[in-house]
Design brief:
Strand order of the largest sheet: 5-8-9
Order of helices and strands: EEEEHEEEEEH
Protein name: ClpX-type ZB domain-containing protein
Organism: Natronomicrosphaera hydrolytica
Bound molecules: zinc ion
Low-confidence stretches: none
Largest sheet: 3 strands, antiparallel
Radius of gyration: 14 Å
Shape: globular
Number of domains: 1
Length: about 120
């Protein structure tokens, strides 16, 4: 997400709150939402069915209980974090695909290891 700090705009990962240093790999969703590569790796490993309905921070869609999702398990208290940050599995997969395509980033993804459902 974006915030104003000292008259400038700072971009940060919605899920862990780490600020973007213009080097770090980041994937953008709707309304300036951002998922960093560290969070993507966690999301791929930890995604699980949500107990309640939720709105995905990246695609802004509402999802029913039982939809696989991910929220950061121990997000800390950085100002750049979105307290409502939650990502649906479809967006996790989309982000993985995006990082996978970027040859400058050391991340390769096998979709069959993380199927749609
Ligand atoms: Zn992050
Ligand atoms: Zn989503």
């Amino acid at each position: 997400m974006q915030r104003n700090e000292d008259g400038g705009i700072v971009i940060s990962c919605d899920f862990c709150g780490v600020d973007w240093d213009e080097e770090r790999a980041m994937v953008e969703g709707h309304k300036g939402s951002v998922l960093c590569l560290d969070c993507l790796n966690l999301a791929l490993a930890q995604g699980e069915p949500a107990e309640d309905a939720f709105t995905c921070t990246m695609c802004l869609q509402e999802h029913q209980p039982g939809t696989r999702w991910w929220v950061h398990p121990s997000p800390g208290n950085l100002p750049g974090r979105n307290p409502e940050g939650a990502i649906c599995w479809a967006c996790v997969r989309l982000a993985a695909k995006t990082y996978h395509k970027d040859k400058d980033i050391d991340f390769r993804w096998d979709p069959s290891e993380h199927p749609k459902e």
